[in-house]
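Because discrete structure vocabularies remain unfamiliar, it helps to consider an illustrative case, giving the amino acid sequence and backbone structure tokens:
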Amino acid sequence: MINGAHVIIYSRDAEADRAFIRDVLGFANVDADHGWLIFKLPPAELAAHPTEGEPRHEFYLMCDDIQSTLEGLGARGVQVDVPVTEQSWGLLAAIRLPGGGELPIYEPRHPVAKDL
């Protein structure tokens, strides 16, 4: 029986990104050994989208109120890389990880699986 999912973010500075996820985003974690942190994520969803290009994977954080979430993250020094834009499915933005990666975050306007 499948009981979870394991998401990997590849980073040029994994240690800084781990500290960011732990200290700024506040995700609980376990140390798998030698500082290799594994984070507990909030409830998750999985979707399969069609593509004309090569298959790929994406990872988005979700929130109930994107404006207040970004304001709170900004107060903790988080850089908003992509300002909020309105999409047909929700409000989308992206924050910058210390390792240089961009992490999309959105407020859904579609039914969410966590409510099942």
In short: Residues 14-24 form the longest helix (11 residues). The chain has a mean pLDDT of 93. The first strand starts at residue 29 and ends at 31.
